[in-house]
Amino acid sequence: MSKLAGRKYKRLQPPEGLGILAQRVWKMIVDSLPPEHFADCDSPVLSLFCRHFVQHERAMQELEASPTLTIIAGNGALSPHPMVGTIAKFAGTLGQLGNKLRIVPQSRLATKEKASNPEFAGEKETDDDEIGKLFAV
Known about the structure:
mainly alpha; two-stranded antiparallel ribbon; 9% strand; elongated
């Protein structure tokens, strides 16, 4: 438990129903940041991030098991392996969610710079509102 300005913080716990692999990702992320980094309202977005991360890893394993990055389509033409597009979509979503959760280095750096700039004194640390976090896709 951590204390900041008289408040006590405990680490956010994974929600019921989150798969075992996604729970491992959750713990890795939550344990690597200060306890006050996440609020209860971050749980749905963090859950989505963890699930997407697991699916991304599964898609990568499937692609790596393939002998080539191309397949022969039904019409005989070469096409990219279907997992290439899937992986790209997961990676894009993970990047967006990582920024919203401030778990990627670039988003944490931007937050620190904004917090140290007197022009932004008194503003929230991020531009995201709580409703946006709940419904982020």
